[in-house]
Amino acid sequence: LNRKLFFPRCPDSGISQRLGIDPRRPVVLNPRGFRRYVRQDTFFASIPKVLSARPDVQFVGVDLQGWGRMERWIEHSGLASSVFLTGHLTQIDLAELYRRAAVMVSPTEHDGTPNSLLEAMACGCLPVCGDLPSIREWITPDTNGILVDPGDSEALAQAILGGLSDNQIGRAHV
Known about the structure:
By secondary structure, the chain is of the alpha/beta class. It is 36% helix and 13% strand. It is built from seven helices and six strands; from the N terminus they run αβαβαβαβαβαβα. It has helices at residues 15-19, 40-53, 68-76, 91-100, 115-122, 133-136, 153-165, and strands at residues 27-30, 58-61, 83-85, 103-106, 126-130, 146-148. A six-stranded parallel β-sheet has the order 3-2-1-4-5-6, with helices on both faces. α2 crosses α7.
C-alpha cells in the first residue's frame, strides 16, 4: 500500500471535475472493474434502490466504461446524472476518488485481501464488501465496514444507505 498516494481525506483536488461528478453530492465508488467473481449485477441492481431513498447519491464504476449493456441501461433508465462509468484510472486518480467517496462497494463472491479494500480504508472511505472470511480479517461489521451477501441487491442497497447515514460506523485506516 503506497501511503504517499492512499491517505485520509483532503479537499477535492479536481477529480470531481475530471470525471464530471458533482462535488457537492456523495459518491459511492465501485473500483473493482470486470472480474468474474465481482457481482456487478448486484451493484447495478442496488442503484435504483439507493436512489429512491437518496436521490443525491452518485455512483462511480471504475474500469466499467465500454460495457454496452450497462451504458444503455444507464441511459434508458434516466440515471446518467447519477451513474458514471470510467475507463482505467491512474493510481493518483484512483486515490483521489477514494478520498472523494463516502462508500466503496465490493460485492465479491470470493476474494483474498483486495487492494481496493486496503486502499479505501487507508483513504477513510467506508468499505461495503461481500461477506467472506478473508474480508472478515479486516472488517468488523458495523464498526469499520459493512459485510453483505454479494448476490443480494437489497442488502447492498441497505448497507450503502446505512454507510451514508450512520456516523457511528468508524472509518478505519490500515
